[in-house]
Structure formats: structure tokens, C-alpha cells
Design brief:
The complex is a heterodimer of chains A (184) and B (84). In chain A, 23% of the residues lie in helices and 38% in strands. With 184 residues, chain A is α+β, with helices and mostly antiparallel strands. Chain A has one domain: 2-Layer Sandwich (Alpha-D-Glucose-1,6-Bisphosphate, Chain A, domain 4), CATH 3.30.530. Chain A starts with a strand and ends in a 14-residue tail after the last helix. The model of chain A has no long low-confidence stretch (mean pLDDT 86). Chain B has a domain of 53 residues. By secondary structure, chain B is mainly α. Chain B starts with 8 loop residues before the first helix and ends in a 20-residue tail after the last helix. The chains are: A alpha+beta (184), B mainly alpha (84). Chains A and B meet through helix 1, strand 2, strand 3, strand 4 and strand 5 of A and helix 1, helix 2 and helix 3 of B. Chain B: It comes from Piptocephalis cylindrospora. Chain B: This is Mitochondrial distribution/morphology family 35/apoptosis. Chain B: GO terms for molecular function: phosphatidic acid transfer activity. Chain B: InterPro entries: MDM35_apoptosis (IPR007918).
């Protein structure tokens, strides 16, 4: 079973700041489930001048309570690949889980462009694909769980980005990533 | 933010600081010449060692062989960015 959805949202911040915030967004108090993040490859394409990055994220708490007896490892490795075209002011990111794929495979693509109605703002289009093949009549339940969890996470992720963006606007960049122990 | 390899966290933070500055002050302003290669190489080799130890390297290579995202709406690929 596969579920697809698309949604749009915006940030009231410039495209350049939003893409910088994308790199600065961990840690933030809305992402306490993100345990680690690493850049595994990064290069500027000499032909296009696009920046290509691959990051590996480690997140905890991905398996619902009723699923934990089937999937004991309650941590997920997430691959995040991205391309930035600074000249054309476009960024595209794609994230997907590397383990627990049988239970649920979530692939999310986000496109960041300058808002056509306001050059000081940024528009984001998100495409998500959910897929589960676990069987035992649980597939629908898992996809429902995934969808709700995704909506919840997407909201927290936007809140985290907005927090980092507010810090970028008001403070020195080096303070943006200070660790705070607030857990909203 | 920590690295997946606890021993790599210091190297990661040194690299991240360099990269974030370069991204904001050079890359976004059109100067795409890399500046943090030396720090990245130290950090990257530490992370790769950890990935190998935890047998995550194969899982990663397999996923990456599918190619990264494309800037083009239709998902068309230009040469060098990998296949579907």
C-alpha cells in the first residue's frame, strides 16, 4: 500500500536564511528525538556549481507502542540528500528512512524557492510517499500511524526551523545552535 | 549536535562551524570554492570508520546508489547526478 500527499507552506524569511537554517536546525528544542547528525558526503559540482550534500540522521522513538514487540530496535537511520543552487535560489531536499523499511518507508521531498509574491519570503512544497509492506493486517494501521506521526513531526520541524530563523535574525550565528533543554 | 560516532563529535563541530560560515559568507554570495576540505576529510574519515564498525556503510551505499534528488520539477536527471 502506498499513500502520496503534497502540501505547501511558507517561511516569512529570506530564501538564503531558510537554507542556512536548514543546516543549523539541529539541535533545537522541537527536535529532541534527533540524536545525531552527520555529513557523509558533500561537494560542489564543478560544472553546475550546485552544492550536493548527504547527511545521515539518527532518530529515536519511531516505532509505535503496539509495534514494539515486532520491531525491537526503536531507532531509525534517516538519509537526507540535498542540492542547493545558490545562483538560481533553489534548494531541494529528500529524506527517507534506511531501516524499518518493511514496517514503513517514508520518502519526503521538499522544494525551497523564493516566494513569487514576496521576494523576502520562502515557499516550500513538500511531497511525501508512505509505503508499508508489513502484512498481518497491520498495514493500514501502520500507515495511519505514519501519516499522523508525519503531520505531527512536520509541524514540529517547521516550529524548529522558525526558532532557528528567529535566532538568525536577532543574534550572532554562533549562538544559533546553543543547546537548550526546553521540551515543548 | 552529536556525531553518530561519539569520538567524532569534536571533529564534526569544528567542520560544521567552518562550513556554516563558508555557506553564509561565500557560497550564497556566489563564491563556490570550497574552504573546509581539510577539516571535512578528518571528520569524514572518523564517521566512515564508525559506519563500518556498525555495519551501516553498506546500507548507506545501497541507498545512495539510487541517486540524489533533482532540482528539476519533473525529476529529470542531468548527467553526473546519478540515475533514478
Amino acid at each position: 500500500m502506498v499513500k502520496l500527499l503534497q502540501f505547501h507552506f511558507g517561511f516569512e524569511h529570506a530564501w538564503s536564511d531558510v537554507t542556512l537554517a536548514f543546516w543549523l536546525r539541529y539541535p533545537n528544542p522541537f527536535a529532541s528525538h534527533v540524536l545525531a547528525a552527520d555529513v557523509v558526503s558533500r561537494k560542489v559540482d564543478p560544472e553546475t556549481q550546485y552544492l550536493h550534500t548527504t547527511r545521515l540522521l539518527l532518530k529515536r522513538g519511531v516505532v509505535p507502542k503496539w509495534g514494539q514487540r515486532f520491531f525491537r530496535q526503536n531507532e531509525a537511520y534517516i538519509l537526507e540528500e540535498s542540492v542547493v543552487d545558490a545562483k538560481g535560489q533553489r534548494m531541494v531536499t529528500r529524506t527517507r528512512n534506511l531501516n524499518h523499511k518493511k514496517m514503513m518507508h517514508v520518502a519526503e521531498t521538499q522544494r525551497f524557492i523564493v516566494d513569487p509574491r514576496n521576494p523576502e519570503w520562502t515557499r516550500v512544497t513538500t511531497d511525501v510517499k508512505f509505503q508499508s509492506s508489513v502484512g498481518w493486517g497491520l498495514t493500514g494501521k501502520i500507515e495511519g500511524f505514519g501519516l499522523n506521526k508525519f503531520r505531527d513531526n512536520a509541524k514540529r520541524s517547521r516550529e524548529g526551523m522558525n526558532l532557528v530563523l528567529e535566532r538568525l535574525r536577532s543574534r550572532d550565528m554562533h549562538e544559533v545552535n546553543k543547546e537548550d533543554n526546553v521540551d515543548p | 549536535m552529536e556525531s553518530i560516532g561519539k569520538d567524532c563529535t569534536e571533529l564534526k563541530q569544528a567542520y560544521d562551524t567552518c562550513f556554516n560560515r563558508w555557506y553564509a559568507e561565500s557560497f550564497l554570495k556566489g563564491n563556490t570554492t570550497p574552504e573546509c576540505d581539510e577539516l571535512f576529510e578528518k571528520y569524514r574519515s572518523c564517521v566512515h570508520k564508525t559506519l563500518k564498525e556498525r555495519q551501516l556503510d553498506k546500507m548507506l551505499d545501497e541507498a545512495r546508489s539510487q541517486g540524489g534528488p533533482s532540482l528539476d520539477e519533473e525529476g529529470k536527471k542531468k548527467g553526473g547526478e546519478g540515475g533514478k
